[in-house]
């Protein structure tokens, strides 16, 4: 398989085309010159900005049809599709003012359109906007997006929840490849650092058509840091300090680009002590240390574009076991602990033809996970190696119809070398093929697709039959057909409707198929079931959006029915003092949604008010509630924007009130959770002192030092509250 794609890459890149050029001038509707407009062609990783005269130029471009995106804060993002041939093109642009929002190109959906043109509602958040909220970790920032929550173990481990679904039901993509890091475990976090991440996109709902198994509940798609603009050299240094955990997050990066070559590198180090609750006590062994390195190199000419990226992430995680015990501000982890080394290598190639193109993404992930009980000898040591590929061919456009055909697959091996096993040695093979089309006419868009997937799981026998830790060899295949249909229309010039129907699936994971032993995180003796079948769902989504110059309103509703939902249930037996639980299946349903407003009153151009409410209910067909369903949440933010002449620009101040309702709809293994309200403050901007320019963020989260327990905290069963007041100071210097 590898040799096939190398041959394709070399062969197609020999197609020579003329070197094309686009240039022009950018104005607003009143013919005012607009400097600093970002002009980008995302497909070939080319980006420049307009100069002080509003002029821009992009050279060395391939033939074909390309989307050129023009974006500037305060103006409506504009995308223009242009056919490039053997000639220079002059493309002048006039942008409309837009006070409330700036449209974004969505990468996680295959047609890469602006959100306003997209059939599927996708949440897009830049890393900068998440950091302005003062969140300590990447997953904590994601949990501020309506419809997204986190299952947390202290402050170090967080697992994403999208509309009540989590674990292997949420697929994570980084650097364009699916992340595989033993994510089935309750104490296995993402293993991703926010340094070097440009933005995140959230697909809420089944995305199996685009990504195959494990995208049943949705997708988190992390867009990596962009390369520098053409002929630009940049270095930056950032430092964040956290009062509660006495934590520090340091990052330094460098990047440069020529017309064809691009390079970047970034290193970061993150260290925290045990987190402190409102009464002043620290939760023992919630400390952690993280080292992260990212690098990338890109090349493009008039025939192809290629980007190679690498990410190494090393985690040293304390696992809280004794609750609030020994008090310490040390950052050296105690036992039990985890050591995780994660390597991600990705290669993205785009080959351009006259009226079509071929995308080929290749990825290799090596996840090396060790768990230590009472010494530096790992009792659990798992090595997960994953090679995956994603190849898509964009057919020549036929009238107003765009069509893509593609194939995706994965080859994965899991090996154990510790004295204990969570899952057996195994080989997993995935293969999928799909096609999808997009049809636009007037103010309407229709998108449909179909896909077939097959997964084979083969494991080895381990241990003695009838004893704990025995794994019987299995060889199972799982197949699924899935489809999606979406429609988007402008009911009026300001009012948009999106309606989507999609099916999705998830093959059972190794833990569900093969478990035979005590799960240390929950003190249950769990027994897997090799007869489990696919989880298969069908979801209906409705999105309504109203946008005017000074007001936005959105309403999202969904209904998600899942056949053969997998869960654990006690069978009444007891082994070594632990209740025995079996993995079983039944049908389930989840329903709810999100709604919100963004108000920008005229003529108070400096004032913004946003408010959102989210709710989800999860039930089995017998009426019992599903576990780990987040509580309803109401979030309100007042934001002011200002400048102070000569020394502060892009200034902002925020007041956020986050109200979480009581969760009384609980499964048989859970306890109810009380309601609580948190108040968060933020201030920041770009500061210029004696020609030294840097960005500053100052946040006070849980400013009233409220004692509260999140329903999705894994420390909840021990009565341990979440983090108390946390003051976060962040600075970023462009050197």
Shape: globular
CATH class of the largest domain: Mainly Beta
The tally of structural domains comes to 2
* End-to-end gap: 44 Å
Query: How many beta-strand elements?
Result: 40
Per CATH, the architecture of the largest domain is Beta Barrel
Task: Describe the sheet with the most strands.
Answer: 22 strands, antiparallel, barrel
Q: In terms of structural class, how would the helical and strand content be classed?
A: mainly beta
Describe this structure in a few short sentences:
Mean pLDDT is 89; it is low at 1-18. With 735 residues, this protein is mostly beta strands.
Summarize the topology.
Blueprint: H1 2-12, E1 20-28, E2 38-41, E3 46-49, E4 55-61, E5 64-71, E6 78-84, E7 88-90, E8 93-95, E9 122-126, H2 127-131, H3 138-142, E10 148-153, E11 157-162, E12 165-166, E13 170-174, E14 177-178, E15 197-204, H4 208-211, E16 218-224, E17 232-242, E18 247-257, E19 261-272, E20 288-300, E21 304-318, E22 337-352, E23 357-372, E24 380-394, E25 401-416, E26 426-441, E27 444-459, E28 475-490, E29 495-506, H5 510-514, E30 516-519, E31 524-527, E32 535-547, E33 551-575, E34 578-599, E35 607-620, E36 633-644, E37 648-660, E38 676-689, E39 692-701, E40 726-734
Parallel strand pairs: 1-7, 1-8, 13-16, 31-34
Antiparallel strand pairs: 1-4, 2-3, 2-5, 5-6, 9-15, 10-11, 11-12, 13-14, 15-16, 17-18, 17-40, 18-19, 19-20, 20-21, 21-22, 22-23, 23-24, 24-25, 25-26, 26-27, 27-28, 28-29, 29-32, 30-31, 32-33, 33-34, 34-35, 35-36, 36-37, 37-38, 38-39, 39-40
């Amino acid at each position: 398989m590898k040799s096939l794609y190398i041959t394709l890459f070399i062969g197609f890149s020999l197609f020579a085309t003329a070197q094309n050029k686009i240039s022009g001038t950018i104005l607003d509707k009143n013919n005012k010159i607009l400097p600093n407009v970002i002009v980008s062609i995302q497909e070939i990783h080319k980006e420049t900005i307009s100069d002080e005269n509003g002029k821009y130029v992009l050279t060395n471009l391939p033939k074909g049809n390309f989307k050129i995106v023009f974006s500037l804060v305060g103006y409506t993002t504009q995308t223009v599709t242009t056919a490039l041939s053997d000639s220079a093109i002059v493309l002048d642009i006039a942008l409309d003012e837009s006070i409330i929002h700036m449209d974004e190109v969505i990468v996680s959906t295959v047609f890469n359109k602006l959100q306003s043109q997209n059939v599927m509602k996708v949440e897009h958040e830049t890393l900068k906007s998440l950091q302005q909220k003062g969140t300590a970790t990447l997953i904590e920032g994601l949990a501020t997006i309506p419809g997204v929550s986190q299952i947390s173990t202290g402050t170090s481990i967080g697992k994403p929840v999208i509309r009540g679904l989590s674990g292997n039901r949420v697929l994570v993509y980084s650097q364009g490849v699916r992340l595989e890091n033993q994510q089935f475990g309750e104490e296995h976090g993402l293993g991703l650092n926010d340094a070097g991440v440009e933005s995140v996109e959230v697909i809420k709902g089944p995305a199996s058509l685009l990504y195959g198994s494990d995208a049943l509940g949705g997708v988190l798609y992390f867009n990596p840091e962009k390369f520098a603009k053409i002929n630009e050299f940049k270095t930056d240094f950032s430092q964040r300090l956290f009062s509660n955990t006495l934590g520090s997050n340091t990052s330094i990066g460098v990047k440069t680009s020529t017309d064809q070559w691009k390079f970047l590198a970034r290193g970061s180090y993150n260290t925290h002590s045990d987190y402190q609750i409102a009464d002043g006590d620290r939760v023992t062994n919630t400390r952690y240390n993280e080292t992260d390195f990212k690098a990338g190199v890109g090349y493009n000419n008039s025939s192809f574009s290629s980007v190679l990226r690498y990410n190494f992430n090393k985690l040293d995680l304390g696992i809280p076991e004794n609750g609030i015990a020994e008090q310490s501000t040390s950052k050296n982890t105690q036992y039990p602990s985890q050591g995780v080394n994660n390597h991600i290598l990705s290669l993205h190639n785009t080959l351009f033809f006259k009226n079509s193109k071929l995308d080929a993404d290749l990825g290799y992930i090596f996840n090396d996970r060790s768990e230590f009980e009472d010494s530096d000898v790992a009792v659990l040591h798992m090595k997960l190696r994953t090679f995956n590929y994603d190849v898509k061919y964009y057919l020549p456009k036929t009238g107003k119809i765009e069509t893509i055909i593609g194939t995706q697959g994965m080859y994965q091996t899991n090996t154990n070398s510790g004295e204990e096993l969570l899952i057996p040695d195994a080989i997993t093979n995935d293969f999928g093929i799909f096609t999808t089309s997009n049809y636009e006419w007037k103010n309407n868009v229709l998108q449909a697709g179909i896909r077939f997937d097959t997964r084979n799981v083969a494991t080895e026998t381990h241990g003695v039959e009838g004893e704990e830790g025995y794994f019987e060899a299995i060889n199972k295949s799982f197949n699924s057909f899935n489809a999606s249909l979406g429609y988007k229309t402008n009911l009026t010039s300001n009012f948009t409707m999106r309606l989507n129907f999609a099916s999705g699936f998830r093959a059972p994971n190794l833990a569900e198929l093969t478990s035979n032993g005590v799960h240390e995180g929950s003190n249950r003796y769990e027994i897997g079931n090799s007869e489990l079948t696919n989880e298969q769902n069908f979801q209906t989504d409705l999105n309504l959006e109203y946008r005017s110059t000074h007001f936005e309103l959105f309403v999202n509703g969904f209904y998600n029915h899942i056949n053969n939902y997998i869960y654990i249930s006690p069978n009444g037996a007891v082994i070594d003092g632990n209740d025995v639980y079996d993995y079983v299946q039944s049908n389930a349903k989840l329903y709810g949604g999100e709604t919100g407003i963004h108000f920008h009153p005229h003529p108070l151009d400096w004032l913004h008010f946003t408010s959102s409410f989210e709710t989800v209910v999860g039930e089995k067909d017998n009426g019992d509630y599903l576990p780990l369903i987040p509580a309803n949440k109401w979030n309100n933010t007042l934001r002011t924007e200002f400048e102070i002449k000569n020394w502060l620009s892009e200034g902002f101040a925020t007041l956020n009130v986050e109200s979480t309702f009581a969760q009384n709809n609980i499964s048989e293994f859970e306890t109810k959770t009380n309601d609580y309200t948190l108040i968060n403050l933020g201030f920041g901007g770009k500061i210029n002192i004696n020609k030294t320019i840097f960005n500053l963020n100052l946040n006070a989260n849980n400013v009233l030092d409220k004692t509260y327990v999140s329903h999705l905290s894994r420390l909840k069963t021990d009565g341990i509250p979440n983090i108390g007041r946390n003051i976060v100071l962040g600075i970023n210097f462009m050197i």
